[in-house]
Amino acid sequence: MDEAQVDRILQNPKFKEMVRKKSMLSWTLTGIMLFVYVGFMLLVGYNKEFLLSSLSGGVTTWGIPLGLSIIVLSFILCGVYSYIANNTLDQLTAEAIREVEAIAHEKGPH
């Protein structure tokens, strides 16, 4: 594959759209997870009393359901990514691959 073919692939609208959508989805989900996790760590560092307080007057504290909800959120975000990737991004990726393969199989100038 020569330099001109690589440039054509990188400038291909389908390829650019695929990269943009995958990147936007990945960064959005990463941002959500980081926001929640860092928020929890700040809560642990600066407001331990809240986390140690009883949820409903019993032995369960606020820290337990909040910590578990972070774990559950990570599974939910993985499911969201899988759903979107399988139903939207896979079709876009297939279209981009077809166009990239067509460019790659073209003969350059001799």
TrEMBL record:
Any single Gene Ontology cellular-component annotation: plasma membrane
Task: Tell me the domain of life.
Answer: Bacteria
Keywords in alphabetical order:
Membrane, Transmembrane, Transmembrane helix
Q: Where are the transmembrane segments?
A: 24-44, 64-84
Pfam families tied to this protein:
DUF485
Q: What is this protein called?
A: DUF485 domain-containing protein
